[in-house]
# Entry
Amino acid sequence: MIILFPEVKFIDYCWKEAMPSYADVRVWMKIFVSVLENTSTFYKKLAIFLKKIKSFPSKDNGLLQKHLHLYSKQQGLFPKGNGYKRAADPSSFSDTVIIMKKLFILLVCLLPMLAQAQMETSVAGFIPLSGSGRIVYNFNPGWRFHRGDIKGAEAVQFDDTAWQVVSTPHSVELMPAEASGCRNYQGVAWYRKHFVIPQDMRGKEVSLHFEAAMGKQVVYLNGRKVQEHLGGYLPFTVQLTEQGVQPGDSCLLAVMTDNSDDKNFPPGKRQYTLDFAYHGGIYRDVWMIGKSSVAITDALEADKVAGGGVFVHFDHISEKKADVYVNTEVHNSGKQARSVTVETILADAGDAPVRRASQQVKLQPGESKTVRQQLTVRNPELWSPDSPYLYRIQSRVKAGRETLDGGVTRVGIRKAEFKEQDGFWLNDKPFGQLVGANRHQDFAYVGNALPNSQQWRDAKRLRDAGCTIIRVAHYPQDPAFMDACDELGLFVIVATPGWQYWNKDPEFAKLVHKNTREMIRRDRNHPSVLMWEPILNETPYPRDFALEALRITREEFPYPGRPVAAADVHSKGVAENYDVVYGWPGDDEKADRPKQCIFTREFGENVDDWYAHNNNNRAS
# Structure
């Protein structure tokens, strides 16, 4: 008779639900959730587990084993003597229950390290590259939070000791399972964080990268306003070094967020009539990044058309070969001219080099230059939903043998074409029908504040359900979700923020177009991105707006194989100009049917009815 204690069921549930991608680890961790037959068996299984840990692709393997050893020693987890045997009488399990509880505590302590050991997380567009010279710290823990406005909350001397201590991603309040219909908190919320700039940041340009915070944000550093940002779905960066902050300095960062209705920036629609919610707070990851004075720029911070950062594109793709083009912008923020080498390695999925290119460049103080390199791959592994193979672009900026900066960009080589009446083709073959769903980023209770593991789980469930394409409705979503779609073989339609609302003020249209440029710069290297949706969903916008939105998609991605632009066939300027049009079943049989491929973006009874969300026939 095998008895599973409540803790065991809970661990197994959390492990399956929170981290579905770590199946291999999960198998080996089952030694922690099984009833122990005896001590010797446990030791044997533990030895196998530790051996398995050594194969984890992580620099933290030694740390993991050290913590396991120290914790087990301190807690007396492993009993001496003849061990513990199974028995039918539950009263004889008291010692085993104690052991299982201790193992449960140990497992909870190990989960973050195990997750880090198995999961690659992109930071500001890069997978961190060991020995690159770029330093990345997780800035999520240790915030103090207050829901509501409060005078003087930006001041250094303000007493925040009574505020709640939280970690980002964070939601301003826990919500019921269904939170549409203006039920969510709307208004100001404050975050404060006391921190010290680490000493290993000496000589680095230090910044804070916010993946997103909802609504309007005002950022204060040591009591002084340093930045404002509008919009809740795209990243922004706060430059610390430019503000005079040095390693060893004690700092106070205060961030005011406000998710209340505001018609002046997109989406703009009042939440009372919205079919999703602007859940408030700093709801995505925050990172501290340290870069050398000569480093690769950030694509959004550079603010250049089709430029900044690393931009990878392809041409002449077939099963026999593919040309890979890598544009890398490097900036010198120092006071002296520097000569550096930009090295690009195209590696396979296992990090084995396939092709290599290097080019020297001289930069004057304050100067930026873009290095353009070409690599040809023979017999490439082509990316597709059934075989989502990811190559790894390793980018390094070097001065002699010293690496100053770098990172990894995961890319998929694939050729996607919409051939009008012949439909969608992938890698020179008819693909068949694209089947998928619309995905909002909110979740029961936590609103928008999903951890990266939950983003991955959502993508996995959609793929397992048979989806091959996801429309991120109606805004750019978490970078972790985009990474998951690359890994799992899900095409994505990336939409600029907007839904059933138009503001005639010219500044509103400018902000929409700014969002579109930024989402393209953020997501242009993802093989999962098949289409851009640069217009406002289900909105009667003017013709010149639609044409400018289309022009921007082509200007920001001016190379063969660019993701196409899609919009409603019945909107002004779309049918005559856009690459793909949104329509309905039967539109292809009409006399005035469009020549482009028709994509049905939403279809289902009562799809926008808040009270029909549980209908069995609901689909989108």
